[in-house]
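Please check our next protein.
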Amino acid sequence: MPSRGPQAARSLEHRHVKSPSQPRDRGIPEATVARLPLYLRALHGMAERGIATVSSEDLAVAAGVNSAKLRKDLSHLGSYGTRGVGYDVEYLVYQISRELGLTQDWAVAIVGVGNLGRALANYGGFVSRGFRVAALVDADPEVVGDTIAGLNVEHIDDLEAVIKRRGVSIVVLATPAAAAQEVCDRVVAVGVTSILNFAPVVLSVPESVDVRKVDLSIELQILAFHEQRKAGGPLMAVDSQ
């Protein structure tokens, strides 16, 4: 589904004049915030298939949650459903996008341009969701100066200047574990407060900084645990002493 510009956002806003132009601070629970992208992904798929309205039950199935939880989550955003009709897909996409801050453009810097960093830089799905890769940074002189996805890879020594010059709001760390904390400290010192961390290490940050951790090896280990149980693998005895 194509990204909505300011004009499209305004036209949707005018359809429901009671809705504010900016999201209110409703004290939305973190668990609800974590599920909003699931609803948004399901809604985007429905919009692409030409579905105009959706019931809470059908949206819940598409998002992989129960309908009662979905209705409670959406109640934090306001009452956008109609009893007996359901939710207007296009408008709910707008409302969730607005609540998540996706009706504006977020500049992202990727630090660490190895295989993962390159894959992220070349991923075309960020733009339609409100994210623009604005900078690529690496320490390897063999990589610095390369052009990836239309961007010149800049040297790690210039990290702070790059962040300021490109107006970066979010930093993606795709560095080796040994370098992650130092890079984190540097971007925090220059004012970055949102970090997506792919490095296999826990970062130490001030309370004002939000870090989301992505560790594929941990997810694979959890799947391995369940595979072992399904195969009838032995349970380890636990010593209670």
Notes: Confidence is low (pLDDT under 50) at residues 1-24. The first strand starts at residue 53 and ends at 54.
